[in-house]
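Page 42, continued from yesterday. The earlier attempt failed because a stray header line got pasted into the input along with the sequence. Redoing it now with the clean sequence only.
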Amino acid sequence: METDLAERLKQAQWTPAQIKAFSVPESQHGWRGLGLPGNQKRKVYTVLHNEQVLVTALLMLPGERGVTHSHESGELSVHFDDPMAPTVSWHPPGEIHGGRAGAPLASQLSDLLAAVKNGPSTPADVLGLAKQLSQLLQVPQLQEWVQALVTPDPRPRVLIDILFPPFKTTIEDPRYPKKTVAGQWYD
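This time it went through. Structure tokens are written below.
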């Protein structure tokens, strides 16, 4: 059975491969986010790139942040936040994803509530909702829960991103000039 599989792979001109992302040649790895202020870089490894697929392994250390982007053909992504529970996600073609909001969510909500409260013609129902949200944000358990949602976990993350032809990525992050990259994306 095993030799039959090997023979079929040969006939299909496929070579079985086992690649250790961290041992790929120097020409197959680089960085993203180096041009951003602060600690927002990611180490990137090109694990496999041929006419059918581009597979990228990313190592993200605590506090690092990705860059908002989209892909012309979509992206299949496997996140290893927890070795026993990887997460698989699909970002359809053109969907903007990646990155993380700059300020904690509680702070953003507070700013939004202040803007709604101070607005020149705020309807009474919106003002009432703003007051209710403001009161909810004072509950310590809710504050902790909201903060936990947006605070990076203090351990490294490994992400495997899989792209399909034409391998075009558009950087949509306001901290970068908008640009489209064909193939692997390094800074």
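Notes: The chain has a mean pLDDT of 75.
Reminder to self: strip header lines before submitting.
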